[in-house]
């Protein structure tokens, strides 16, 4: 696997990033674990997720992808070998301040992502600030 430095972050990431938007709704946990295992076995180290993934699916609350990654990280004990990118912006509740890029929402979202991912740090945190309501 080829690695690149990600911008000016100093992070070394695999050229391929594993997107995990499907984890927890069209990809079940055992399948997600198998995919992540295969990705890492082939040298991949860069995972993309977001707090909002799956929230638009009836019966899902969002965060399912992060939860599955967190259980995988715990089971494999390999947190220090992977780079996790997650995102903030989209609504995670019904309240007017449970979305966006306010200080309040970002702090609450970071804390929730850390809990779901079962880690004490995020490698990369991005604003996922596009939706149909964005002018």
Q: In DSSP terms, counting alpha (H) and pi (I) runs of 4 or more, how many helices?
A: 3
Low-pLDDT regions:
none
Kindly estimate the percentage of residues that lie in beta strands according to DSSP. Answer: 15-25%
- How is the main sheet built? 4 strands, parallel
Which CATH top level class fits? Alpha Beta
Rg result: 15 Å
Q: Assign the structural class, choosing from mainly alpha, mainly beta, alpha/beta, alpha+beta, or little secondary structure.
A: alpha/beta
Q: What's the helix-strand series? A: EEEHEHEHE
Enter the CATH topology name. TIM Barrel
Q: Architecture, CATH level 2?
A: Alpha-Beta Barrel
Mean pLDDT: 86
Number of E-type strands: 6
Number of domains: 1
Measured between the Cα atoms of the first and last residue, the distance is: 40 Å
Helix share, percent: 25-40%
CATH H-level superfamily: NADP-dependent oxidoreductase domain
Briefly characterize the structure.
The protein is of the alpha/beta class. The chain has helices at residues 29-41, 64-76, 103-117, and strands at residues 3-5, 12-14, 17-19, 46-48, 83-88, 124-127.
Question: Strands, helices and their partners?
Answer:
Layout: E1 3-5, E2 12-14, E3 17-19, H1 29-41, E4 46-48, H2 64-76, E5 83-88, H3 103-117, E6 124-127
Parallel strand pairs: 3-4, 4-5, 5-6
Antiparallel strand pairs: 1-2
Mind explaining what this structure looks like?
The protein has 135 residues and is an alpha/beta fold. The protein has a single domain (3-127), classed as TIM Barrel (Alpha-Beta Barrel), CATH 3.20.20. The protein is built from three helices and six strands. Helix 2 crosses helix 3. The chain starts with a strand and ends in an 8-residue tail after the last strand.
């Amino acid at each position: 696997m080829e690695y690149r430095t990600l911008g000016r972050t100093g992070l070394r990431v695999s050229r391929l990033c594993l997107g995990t938007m499907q984890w927890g709704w069209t990809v079940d946990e055992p399948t997600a674990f198998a995919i992540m295992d295969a990705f890492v076995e082939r040298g991949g180290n860069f995972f993309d997720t977001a707090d909002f993934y799956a929230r638009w699916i009836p019966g899902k609350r969002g965060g399912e992808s992060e939860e599955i990654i967190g259980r995988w990280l715990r089971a494999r004990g390999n947190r220090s070998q992977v780079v996790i990118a997650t995102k903030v912006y989209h609504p995670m509740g019904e309240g007017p301040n449970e979305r966006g890029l306010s200080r309040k929402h970002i702090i609450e979202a970071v804390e929730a992502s850390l809990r779901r991912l079962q880690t004490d740090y995020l490698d990369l945190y991005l604003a996922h600030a596009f939706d149909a309501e964005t002018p």
